[in-house]
Model the fold of this input.
Amino acid sequence: MTSLVEEAQVPSYNTRLIFYPLLLLASSIWILYRWQQKSRLHTLAEKLPGPPVIPFVGNALLVLKKNPTQLVEFALKFAEQFGNVIRIWLGSNLIVFLTDPNDVEVILNSNVHIDKSTEYKFFKPWLGEGLLISTGDKWRSHRKMIAPTFHINILKSFVSVFNQNSKNVVDKMKGEMGKVFDVHDYMSGVTVDILLETAMGITRKTQDESGFDYAMAVMKMCDIIHQRQYKLWLRFDALFNRTSFFEQQKKLLSTIHGLTTKVIKNKKETYLENKSKGFIPPTLEELTKSTDDNVLANNDKSLSEDVFKGYRDDLDFNDENDIGEKKRLAFLDLMIESAQNGTNNISDEEIKEEVDTIMFEGHDTTAAGSSFVLCLLGVHKDIQARVYDELYEIFGDSDRPATFADTLRMKYLERVILESLRMYPPVPIIARKLNRDVKIATNNYVLPAGCTVVVGTLKMHRNPQYYKNPNVFNPDNFLPENTSSRHYYSYIPFSAGPRSCVGRKYAILKLKVLLSTVLRNYKVNSDVTEAEFQLQADIILKRTDGFRLQIEPRQRVPSTVA
Ligand code: HEM
Done:
């Protein structure tokens, strides 16, 4: 009996030993939770529309186990349900989604809300403190230094690089004739080649590390970063560093950084060697100086200059003169030159970060952008015929490369590109961290400091208030009469305001040369309808089903004859 009592007493003693600390822990967690509920972040967040919240987890379960395609469908449905302002909690992180251009303008047009959200920190091992993620004075001074390297005079000197590489990809695509193939592979390859030449000044012939390996490494890195953004546990370095992703990331970064570091080292050595021999390249100021004789007439300017004029950024289209082929300098050369001549105070490490950033930002975005255009033209044959007729008017049946002046005449192609970027914006969301409370236009809601604001470009671009049939591909949405009275912030594929895309003009120019070259050589066809495109929520918008395309040789005659 005694032993029984003793036996009975032992568990009761043990239970108390566990029960009281547990009770204490649970009460502390509850008090912490209630205290959090009363915090300013929670008080203001409670006023915003959004789904019910589960303590501690927030709304994280909503995205759990959803694949990237389901995530896009889910986000679009969610926006239908809750409207233009939606609040969700991922654990203790408050995220507010905005899709009203008036609200978006408040954030993007500000010189204060320029900090990127914490999600961008996953780029850090790759891009360091490059332009995309840096903030404060560093971002300001580097933006001031880098924006002029995208001056139209510099871009004009790249037209021959765009032409040569476009011609190369047309030749490579010949092998796909008659088959269904993924055109993104080709667009990605040619984009990397063009970037290597225009950003780093190296061609396939001069590089000993394959551009394809580099492109693959960039794509895989994007995938890892994307997983970290929506898989809650991967957000914590301590957990991430124990997964196989971490090891993969290390290998990929060694491919990516290996190339950029080597190129910078070689370039700097060449610069110093040339300098010692008295060869000094032209400065950025010399290259971007305008001459009155060469200023383009207003009606010669490209359409997108009007579309984007409300952005209030620092990319000036006004002065145009031709600096000529011989003076072509890659962005890297310009940065090395300005660091060496003392115009800019930038270290080798910082130059590497900026080159990596340009290589990342300039690559996947334009590869996806051009692939969407080709697939859309494969679906909308009437629109493709109009694009070709315009090209025929410019080039006839000749095979000559495009000039900068030709690109200004590609007005319909430009509308097609702009419309494709509306329906399928390569950067489907933009995120900012708020360091101050902000009052937005919708219901005078106040978004609290500390929250992340996500601008849902994909959703905003399909708002029936601004586009008559928002889900119909219609390049006429960009006829001047339709764009002139539209809210500037209802169309932001390149973001807008002080942190807008620095490569916007480069991208439009390159897309025109590349796409016109492909379309002058091939008729394109899609074996699926647009409704069957499966969109993938990624850092860059893509298709899960691949960018399926078929090509056939183009008869160089107007569509009415063909
Ligand atoms: C169709 C092509 C492109 C699209 C749709 C696009 C879109 C964007 C967007 C939306 C942003 C803002 C991102 C954010 O705030 O999170 C951005 C930033 C940026 N883009 Fe692009 N981009 C394109 C092409 C390019 C190209 C070709 C380059 C360079 C060669 C480039 C370089 C940059 C850089 C450096 C930034 C950071 C700017 C800053 O924060 O000051 N982009 N881009």
In short: Residues 1-9, 291-299, 317-326 have pLDDT under 50 and may be disordered.
